[in-house]
Amino acid sequence: MCIGAHLANRELFTFFIRLIVGFKILGPMNEADAAITDGMEVNALPTALVVQPKKFKCRFEPRNLEDLELWIENSRQRAEIY
């Protein structure tokens, strides 16, 4: 196992939590671009051993714009140190 696996796991966890807390994840404006939820139609490669979903679109809307701007500014300040 890689020495950095635990750090990578925590970084991914932090990224996804920030994404979920910071944004509403919504369907696309055009229904033709929506995700396919039918279990038989979802696979882009029908002969594959595992499911590879067909491409779809989604939208991200900030839950709270003020908090989001504060997070971005704090991240920018921390990055300037390095």
From TrEMBL:
Coiled coil: none annotated. It comes from the Eukaryota. InterPro entries: Cyt_P450_sf (IPR036396). Residues 1-22 form the signal peptide. Gene3D superfamilies: Cytochrome P450 (1.10.630.10). GO terms for molecular function: heme binding; iron ion binding; monooxygenase activity; oxidoreductase activity, acting on paired donors, with incorporation or reduction of molecular oxygen. The keyword Repressor does not apply. SUPFAM superfamilies: Cytochrome P450. The keyword Mitochondrion does not apply. Keywords: Signal. This is Cytochrome P450. The lineage of its organism: Eukaryota, Metazoa, Spiralia, Gnathifera, Rotifera.
